[in-house]
Amino acid sequence: MLNLHPSLTMTTAWNPLRAARLTPSKRRAIELSADELYEEERNPTVPLKHYYPMRLGEVLHERYQVAAKLGHGARSTVWLARDLNRWSWQSPHFVALKVAVSDYDDNSESAMQRELATLKHIKSANPQHEGYEIVRTLLDSFTLPGPSGGHLCMVLQPLRESIARLRHSFKQGRFPAVLLAILAEPLL
Fold first, then answer.
1. Among residues 33, 22, 133, 39, which one has the least CA distance to residue 77?
2. Alpha carbon distances (Å) from 7 to 4, 61, 132
3. Cα angle 164, 142, 17; round to 5
4. C-alpha–C-alpha distance, residues 38 and 152, integer Å
5. Which of 48, 98, 124, 155 has its CA 20 to 30 A from that of 71?
6. Are 120 and 136 in contact (CB under 8 A)?
7. What is the Cα–Cα distance from 101 to 73, expressed in whole angstroms?
8. Could you tell me the pTM of the whole model?
9. pLDDT band at 90 (very low <50, low <70, confident <90, very high)
10. Is 1-157 a domain of CATH 3.40.225.10?
11. SS3 for 155?
12. Domain-wise residue ranges, the chain
């Protein structure tokens, strides 16, 4: 272990050998109207106060720096984050953070706990299994304290958009035969 000056610790904030935090962009963000509702704000089943109030650039769990929002769902939001637990000479590594709503109701909490249990089960499976490499596995999990309670956070590999959303990129929502064959190959 390194012996550092007592004022320095081995956290990502102070260790010069660790990856530097991202600096905020100089570009001005698109301004959104305060009078309109966006994304999870439109969810009629979960009050907005139960979503974690994420800020770009925020560092979670002393390791993951939030870079961009990837999406939202009925019980969570998903964020792209840079893993700061890297040496400065290593290339950046990004992860997806799935941040659950706080303890809104028993159904939401138990659904997220079941998802976490399923991901932990998959992670403990035989990595030599032929299908293991095409299934997303859990990298980490933790609870994030928020203003309305704890938020379960699951750290996963970032993936591409869903096939349902990708399909809308093509005329009449139909995949070209060549792309469909590539997508179906792992299923055969």
1. 39
2. 8, 20, 44
3. 100
4. 22
5. 124
6. no
7. 10
8. 0.74
9. confident
10. no
11. strand
12. 1-157, 162-188
